[in-house]
Amino acid sequence: MAGSALRAWELARVLLRAGHDVRVAGAPGSTAPVPNGPEVVHRPRWAWPQVVLSPPWNLSPRALLGRRRLVVDGATPLLAELAAMPASRLVRRRRRTARARLPLALAHADAVLAAGRAQAAWWRQRLDGAGRREAPVLNVPFGLPEVDPPAEADEIAGVPAGWAVVLWWGGVWPWLDLDTLLAARALLGDAPVAVVVPTARRPGAPAVSFDATALLERAAAHGLAPPRVVALDRWIPYAERHRILRRAAVVAVLHRPGEEAELSFRTRALDAVWAGVPLLLSEGGAVAATAQRLGWGAVAPALKPQAAAEALARLLSEPEQRRCRSAIASTRGDWSWPAVAAPLVETLPRLPATARTSLLGAALRAAFVLIGRGSG
After folding, report:
1. Which of 54, 18, 76, 51 lies closest to 268, judged by CA?
2. Which residues contact 289 (CB under 8 A, 6 or more apart)?
3. Has this prediction a pTM greater than 0.85?
4. Local structure of 159: helix, strand or coil
């Protein structure tokens, strides 16, 4: 599952425990990532729910009909992500489609979930501009499992015994910055440190955009070769991710500066916090600010390999490992899914149906975006 799907699953589990009857709607072939959770359905009965919780970017038109409440999960800054991608025909079409969904979501949302202050301000501005000042924006970031991960850790094929692992956890997207991490690793010279990057195809996906060959080519441009850079070329199930995370000394999540960075909430970094692994992050975004404040790792200026290398060398030292892991252990309980989802759980039973604006007007604005005559 991608991060947005896992978020839907974990929020559904919290709501189920709070006494709500919950269904998770997923594409055909979707299954629960772990047992003991809500039912996963492929064809939801739209007459059944009293409340629909959905990202705006794949909001079904049926969710806009009837008297049910609509909670929009705005935690993924998809418009900013698409703006950071090369402008192919497919990307341009996806941008238009995403922008066209926005006026529909703004017209009928009874509440919006955001992850961090920047996202909350972004949604507040757009709700106000759509005449929806009464619709609340709730800060519900990504969370962590309540139970600590098991202590077991897997060895990673291609990483020599005794070497430290710097784990790039997740996909390689255009708004992220693997090159600065590779350049930083090159500056560490002969240090026994392996940068490990997942390159496996996600189950159900037709292909992977960044495979092992692409990684080795990118690494060679920085003068690196195995075992200094290693491809993790097998898919890691959600329930087994601790086995890889526990092997890591550092989890690195570096990005390029821009709107996506400022609006981001790096869900992959929260996995590291759950596993107790120190973080190396770029400046910008809610998670970097939180990590700096709580001592979860190091934050380096974006696009600065020398600064990233110096931060990485510090993080790999025993004193810094102890300090970061202690800071993570003392604060991660505040980031459990029940804790971060508390605003949603508390608001949902008393969520009023706010005064909605015309769905016809929103549909017309969406249509203008789709035909290329509106900005969305």
Report:
1. 76
2. none
3. yes
4. coil
Q: CA angle 69-72-78, nearest 5°?
A: 160
CATH 3.40.50.2000 in the chain, residues? 164-334
CA-derived radius of gyration, the chain? 21
Continuous H helices in the chain: 3-17, 78-83, 89-108, 117-129, 178-187, 212-220, 242-245, 259-263, 267-275, 286-294, 305-315, 318-331, 337-340, 342-347, 359-370
Inter-residue contact 341 to 11 (CB < 8 Å)? yes
Cα(315)–Cα(220) distance, integer angstroms:
25
Domain 164-334: give its CATH architecture. 3-Layer(aba) Sandwich (3.40)
What residues does 231 pair with on adjacent strands?
Answer: 197
Topology adopted by domain 3-143+340-370: Rossmann fold (3.40.50)
Give CA separation, 79 vs 27, 90, 95, 332, in Å.
22, 14, 7, 30
pLDDT, tens digit, 9 for 90 and up, residues 91-102: 999 999 999 999
pLDDT by residue (tens digit) across 104-116?
999 999 999 999 9
Pair 31, 236: CB distance under 8 Å:
no
Q: How many CB atoms lie within 10 A of CB 213?
A: 10
Q: Take residue 146 and report the two structure tokens written for it.
A: 């309540």
CA distances from 207 to 91, 202, 204, 234, 359 (A): 17, 8, 9, 14, 38
Helices 89-108 and 117-129 pack at an angle, to 10 degrees, of: 70
| Spatial contact of 40 and 31, defined as CB atoms under 8 Å apart | yes
Mean pLDDT, residues 110-139: 96
Report the sign of the C-alpha dihedral through residues 257, 262, 265, 271, in that order: positive
- φ/ψ of 286, rounded to 5, equals -65, -40
| Cβ pair 311, 329 in contact under 8 A | no
| Closest alpha carbon to 210 in 219, 88, 193, 87 | 219
Is residue 352 within 8 A of residue 110, CB to CB? The reply is yes
For 273-319, the pLDDT digits (tens) are 999 999 999 999 999 999 999 999 999 999 999 999 999 999 999 99
Q: Cα–Cα distance between 239 and 256 in angstroms, integer?
A: 30
In sequence order, which residues have a C-beta less than 8 Å from that of residue 319 and are 6 or more positions away?
A: none
